[in-house]
Structures are given as C-alpha cells and as structure tokens.
Design a protein that fits this description.
Elements lengths: L5 H7 L1 H13 L2 H8 L3 H15 L4 E4 L2 E4 L1 H22 L11 E7 L1 H15 L5 E7 L5 H6 L5 E5 L7 E9 L1 E5 L12 H6 L2 E4 L7 H8 L6 E5 L2 H5 L8 E5 H11 L2 E3 L8 E8 L6 H16 L1
Parallel strand pairs: 3-4, 3-5, 8-9, 8-10
Antiparallel strand pairs: 1-2, 5-12, 6-12, 7-10, 7-11
Helix pairs in contact: 2-3, 2-4, 2-5, 3-4, 6-11, 6-12
Protein name: LysR family transcriptional regulator
Organism: Streptomyces cathayae
Family: Belongs to the LysR transcriptional regulatory family.
C-alpha cells in the first residue's frame, strides 16, 4: 500500500490536475475554461495554484493561447495516465465506449497519409456523435516531438524516428507511383524513362528544391525538368487535370487521387525504394482503453487503404 502523506496530498487538489490536463489539450485558458464549464478567472486562478504547486511557469503566453514549458510536458506524461486510472476507479469503468464518449482524438500525419486513411476513419466514426477526429500536419522527424508535447494523441508516419519512451506498430508497406492526366499527357503505361524525362514535373518537397527522385536521377547522371514545387501531395495532384505534367508521389496517395480526379497511374521507370508506414505513440498510453480503441481504428483504416 502506498504511504500517503495527507497534508501534502491535500495541497495537490485533483481538480487542479484536471485543469492542467485541459490546458495541455486546449492550449488556451479560454478554451480550457469552456471545456471544463468554469469561468476564465477561475481557470486562471487554478493555473496560478498549479504554478505554485510545481514551482514552474508551466504555460507561457503566445499569440494564439499558451504553450507548455518543458516541465509541463514532462508532468503531462505522468499526470494523463494517472487521471485515466482515477477516472476508471471513480466511474467503475476500465473501458472506453465510443458510443457514449465525448472525446477529440488528434492524429499527426502528412497529407498523403491523411488521403489514404481518413476515408476509412470517417466512415468508422460517422455514427459516433461524441467522437471527433482532428489531424495535424506531421512527418517522421516531427511526430514524436508532437507526441511528447501533448499536441497529438497518435502519430502516423513512414519509418518514424522514435525513442525508448515511444511505442510503434507497422500499418502497411508503400512505395512510389507516377501520376498524370492521360487526356493532357497521352503516354503509354508503364511510362518509359525517355517519356519521364521528356515531360515537366511537379515536385513535392519540404524545402522546394529537390526530392528522392532527383537523388536517384543524379546518381545515374540524369535530370528531370521541374516547373514548380509544393509541400503538399494533394496540392500537386490537384494541378494535373489542367496541366500536362507528371507527379511522383507515394503509392497509397496516388491511388486515392487517381480515383478522385480521373488520373492515370504508372510505376516509375526507375528503381524506387519501398518503406513501412507505422503508428507511434507514447508508451504511457499503451494500456489506456481510449487510446487502444484509437489505435485499432487506425489499423482497420490502414487495412482498407
């Protein structure tokens, strides 16, 4: 049995931890107050008591709300699972029922994965009135940082870089596919390397300068003609019905865009790598019933993609 020092424990006030959790989730005193059905002044007062309790600023003001300090992020890793356990004891429930729950689940992924997974996710949650899904842009290099800061509940990325505190689950394998409008660019399929190099390309790249295709071509002493670049896969695909150009993008997204926009797909005319898309989360949430439900939801959507 844990030896509880009552005097110290009373100073903590579990209601303060609920306010802390809401501030981590909402990143705003105003929104946290609304979520908790408290006044803004009461929420601000609770934040003041939290700062005294933990001897840290915890949340600093920004233009759009508040941001947690490193100390707050570290506290959240322990407080959130603890609140979940306490809630289960108080309500005599250790399970999550999506039919009665009121919950926002935030996912972190790039827009190619959003295109592949969201149709299945939305179909699965369409009848759940209290469940809402939110997606934030993330990639393999940013996803675990967003998890650690409490910005997302679950990340999905290609080979996400993660540490000992995180857990992951492989969802599906993918590669690369060429996409174009056959009405504007009447090429045979599979497309030849000569055709690939003879026609203009849209580049999808975070820095706008080059992508994996350019690295592969350069190794062969070849070069393609890039006429524009974008950071979003959907942004490139949407141009193709009005532009005689090629786009090379992840196969799982190319399939979705081809069906939605009436575009043609083709294997690339040069060897391209394959990779595994995985979900990733903080290890403290592994046994949380709501998080387990979310992970299974994403796994089911991945099987349909």
């Amino acid at each position: 049995m844990i030896d509880i020092y009552e005097t110290e424990f009373r100073k903590a006030d579990l209601n303060l931890l609920v306010v802390f959790s809401a501030l981590m989730r909402e990143r705003s005193v105003t929104r946290a107050a609304a979520a908790l059905h408290l006044s803004q002044s009461a929420t601000s007062a609770a934040l003041g008591r939290l700062r005294g309790l933990f001897d840290d600023e915890l949340f600093t003001r920004t233009g759009g709300g508040v941001e947690p300090t490193p100390r707050a992020v570290e506290l959240a890793r322990r407080i959130e699972p603890a609140l979940g356990l306490i809630h289960g004891v108080v309500t005599d429930r250790d399970r999550f029922d999506p039919r009665t729950a009121r919950r926002v689940f935030t996912l972190g992924m790039s827009d190619d994965l959003e295109a592949a997974l969201m149709p299945g996710l939305l179909a699965a949650t369409a009848g759940l009135r209290g469940v809402r899904l939110a997606v934030r842009q993330a990639n393999r290099n940013t996803v675990t940082g967003m998890i650690d800061r409490g910005e997302i509940d679950l990340g999905v990325a290609a080979a996400p870089a993660h540490g000992a505190d995180h857990r992951s689950h492989d969802l599906f394998d993918s590669g690369y596919t060429c996409l174009f409008d056959h009405r504007l660019l009447p090429l045979g399929t599979p497309i030849t390397l000569d055709d690939y190099l003879a026609h203009p390309h849209l580049l999808i790249s975070y820095d706008g300068r080059r992508g994996i295709v350019d690295d592969i071509l350069e190794a062969r002493g070849l070069e393609r003609r890039v006429i524009a670049s974008t950071t979003h896969f959907a942004g490139a695909a949407l141009q193709l019905p009005a532009l005689p150009a090629l786009v090379t993008l992840p196969t799982h997204a190319a399939t979705v865009y081809a069906g939605a926009l009436g575009l043609t797909t083709s294997p690339p005319p040069l060897p391209m790598p394959t990779y595994t898309v995985s979900s990733v989360w903080h290890g403290t949430l592994t046994d949380d019933p709501a998080h387990l439900w979310l992970r299974r939801l994403v796994e089911d959507a991945a099987r349909l993609s």
